[in-house]
Amino acid sequence: MSRPTTGGFVKTPGWLDWYDGPSRPQLALPAGAVDAHCHVFGPGERFPYAPQRKYTPCDASKEQLFALRDHLGFARNVIVQATCHGADNRALIDACQASGGRARGVATVQRSVTDAELLALHDSGVRGVRFNFVKRLVDFTPKDELLDIAQRIAPLGWHVVVYFEAQDLPELWDFFTALPTTVVVDHMGRPDVRKPLDGPEFGLFVRLLREHPNIWTKVSCPERLSVSGPPALPGRCGPEQPPYADVIPFARHLVQTFPDRVLWGTDWPHPNLKDHMPDDGLLVDFIPHIAPTPELQRKLLVDNPMRLYWPEEWKGD
Ligand SMILES: O=C(O)/C=C(\CC(=O)C(=O)O)C(=O)O
User: What region holds the Amidohydrolase-related domain (predicted)?
Assistant: First the structure.
């Protein structure tokens, strides 16, 4: 069944809708687990997609996100603004406000955003902004504009989420290390997993976190990075043949090296995947391969996201 995009919008040709009927994870998530990277899209008839977008997704509603949350066993969501909505955060805000305090947001704002608008975003549950450097998703934004935004959101206690391609890290290094907030990197900085774990490319990313204790990373999206597979699909993977096996060493190294600065998310509804759509339940069962102990899983899924997004509620040590 092809999922609709309402409001007169037409899905990008070849668009893959999210996996229908995900399995129940084998992994019993720790109480209070947080899906720390996911999205809501539209519905287009209520929350139009941005004119400058590079893709048009299927609608993916807050109700469907919250149903997935409950199905997988998560307690909370961090909803991240995607480029298809540009700097129009209304769908994100609507979802956060409807969540009963169980969702926080990471918004996209422009330099023209007013202080009153920032405060309204905060009151709706936003706790960060996202800077996207992936060229297939966005046009160039001057770094002085981004730095200005970072300096304006720092007093709110917000952080900056950054999304970039690994080959662009050298050019972005000075900007990232100048940011005055906590910085959270999406999807491990998208490493090329065909290259060696101890090679200079991934070594530069590890050095970034080692030298800058304010920089965190999400160890999510193996389905975007894997070359070898197998896909997280029923019958294609299993306990003896984990999905996305070539990504495991990279993600596990980050979890074991920086256990207090890692986050995980489903990335539902998985925009812009081209060759398959993962079963989200099997994605959750990927977690023990990269966080092999209950303590590491609790840090990854509960302690770290609670410290960052619900510090007023975190009861950790
Ligand atoms: O959803 C993700 O994290 C990854 C995306 C989409 C995205 O980041 C966006 O549109 O903002 C991608 O690689 O196309």
Answer: 34-309
Distance 240 CA to ligand 1 centre (A): 30
- pLDDT tens string 25-50: 999 999 999 999 999 999 999 999 99
Amino acid 317: pLDDT: 61
Give the position, in ligand 1's atom list, of the atom nearest the Cα of 187: 3
- What is the pLDDT confidence band of residue 4, given thresholds at 50, 70 and 90? very high
Provide the ipTM.
0.98
Note the pTM of the prediction, 2 decimals. Answer: 0.98
The answer to whether 267 is a known catalytic residue is yes
With a 6 Å cutoff on the Cβ, whether 265 touches ligand 1 is no
Q: Name all contacts of 63-68 with Cβ < 8 Å and 24+ positions apart.
A: 64/269, 65/38, 65/39, 65/40, 65/95, 65/268, 66/99, 66/102, 68/22, 68/266, 68/268, 68/280
Report which protein residue has its CA nearest ligand 1's atom 8.
82
Measured from the CB, is residue 214 less than 6 Å from ligand 1? no
161: its two tokens: 């989420």
Q: From ligand 1's centre to the CA of 129, what distance in Å?
A: 14
